[in-house]
Amino acid sequence: MQTVGYSEQHSTSHTQFNQVEEKVAFFEKEGFVGPFDLGQTASLVAVRDAMSKEIEASQGQHISSQPTQSPIMDRRIAHTTSKLIYSLSTESPILDDVADFIGSNILFWMAETIVREPGHDGHIVEKTGQIWHIDVINGWIKGVHTSIAVTDMTMKTGCLLVIPGTHKYDADLRALEKAGECNLTDAESLLRLADKMHPENAPHQIKAIEMKAGQYCFTRGGIWHGVSQNNDSRTRFGVVARFARPDVEIKNFAGNPIPCIIVRGEDSHQLNLLKNIPEQH
Predict the structure, then answer these.
(1) Is residue 14 part of a domain?
(2) DSSP H/E element including 139
(3) What's residue 95's pLDDT?
(4) Model's pTM, two decimal places?
(5) What is the residue range of 78's domain?
(6) Whole-number Å distance between alpha carbons of 186 and 130
(7) Which among 192, 242, 259, 269 would be 20 to 30 A from 18, CA to CA?
(8) Is 175 helix (H, G, I), strand (E, B) or coil?
(9) What is the CATH number of the domain that holds 30?
(10) How far apart are CA 161 and CA 236, in angstroms?
(11) Residue 279 domain-assigned (yes or no)
């Protein structure tokens, strides 16, 4: 995967923000913010251990490295099936930041574990082979996307790559690729496209959000992003979690409700399918 143009000035941290307003303003302008420090909490260690055991078990059975029947590995609904994932994703520092971005009433509507074994070529979108993409549903719901590093996420092991400001561009990257405007496996072509669409913001750059284990960051829906290849000898583990306000109806593209959990405040709108906190690990 090409990473031409990515900036060494790749991260932000709590120490760079003197006030909540500065953090929120940066997030709204750039479409990302972080990393922030959570640390080696009990929940992080528990998730790392559980994911390691799941991978070892699946490799011993010669099946997929990401089993679908395990609660901790449940694709996109692990917040409703795994207490471990729920506990890590709702650590107080994370929810404090989420509240700064979307308010005190918070719906937890998606979580999944990410496993990238040695040699994995970043974030390849299923069935399309695309690496650079937009999380359309997250932009539609207009919440915040949280990435948590369970193990180190670096340019060597694979980290999130974003093009700042593109969350405001309202672009359909797949349609633009079909029209010959870009190549979604080529980072440099995305930079050229961004410069062409919004020359007032040129030159665009790729920011690599490198995180140590126990750090987390946020992105806005709609931001153009990809993930670098894992060139390390170790498997990389991560968790992604998404949060939204309860006055937003959370449905998938087929119009079916997505299960949610109220993690802060209250839901006075009753628009969504609510679930209880999971009891099993």
Answers:
(1) no
(2) helix 136-141
(3) 97
(4) 0.87
(5) 20-54+71-264
(6) 9
(7) 242
(8) helix
(9) 2.60.120.620
(10) 16
(11) no
Cβ-based neighbours of 74, under 8 Å, separated by 6 or more: 68, 80, 81, 82, 112
Name the phi and psi angles at 167, rounded to 5.
-65, -15
Given this model, what pLDDT does residue 266 score?
92
pLDDT, one tens digit per residue, over 209-218 is 999 999 999 9
List, as one string, the DSSP characters of 56-72.
Answer: HHHHHTTS-SS-SSSGG
**What b-and-e string marks burial along 41-77, b requiring 16 or more CB atoms within 10 Å of the CB?**
eebbebbbebbeebbeebeeeeeeebeeebbbbbebb
Write out 11-66 in H/E/C secondary structure. CCCHHHCCCHHHHHHHHHHHCEEEEEECCCCHHHHHHHHHHHHHHHHHHHCCCCCC
Q: Hey, is 53 helix, strand or coil?
A: helix
Q: Which residue has the tokens 């359909």?
A: 172
Domain count, the chain: 1
Report, as ranges of residue numbers, the positions in the chain whose pLDDT lies below 50.
1-15, 62-68
